[in-house]
Structure prediction request, 224 residues.
Amino acid sequence: MRPVPFVLAASLFTAGFLAAAPNAAAEETRSFDLPEFDRIDMSAGVILIADVGSQQSIIVKTNKGDYSDFTIKVSNGELNISRERNPLSWHSSKSDYKVIVSVPTLTALDASSGARAKIFNIDAARFAIDLSSGAHALLEGKCKSCLLDLSSGADLEAKGLECDNADIDVSSGGHGVISVLDTVKGGASSGGHVVVYGNPSQVNISKSSGGRIKIVASAQATRD
Prediction:
């Protein structure tokens, strides 16, 4: 299901995170020819827009034309995207990086440190999601089984990701929404909160210290 054309959705998503720069001439785009991958690990405020099910391609845009603190590579089938953390440059304005990816298959997303991702058309037997430290992800597609780990203020918008089964671990102020059709198990602690759409028939969850996993039918679900 592709409710919004990928190129248009990518533009709309990016507009929410990148402010218009007065010196547009400094912008630069590069393409990267890297080995095959089916997992993504990203961090340090990088923005990712990915479309699953297409031939592999990787395009990176920056608003300042300077890639000196940017790293992108594939290691053991995982695409690693990050930027250098330099405590001595806290006073200077940093470049923004937007990574636009097409990939035939994707089975995992690991995002941290304020990274932001939007991924369309996931179609996997098993999909793993690990978000932490203020990372944000919006995911759409389907999977048989989902392994979800949210912590440290991370936020997941995945009502559009339909899973048959889900194993959820949410803690430390992590928040999320996901759709599950059959079975949910897991735990919530320390103010972590997940809303599960779809009213799954089998539920086995635990909670402590203000954590919550809320199971509701789609028409009733809220982010309270």
Q: What stands out?
A: Residues 6-15 form the longest helix (10 residues). The mean pLDDT is 88. DSSP finds one helix and 15 strands in the chain.
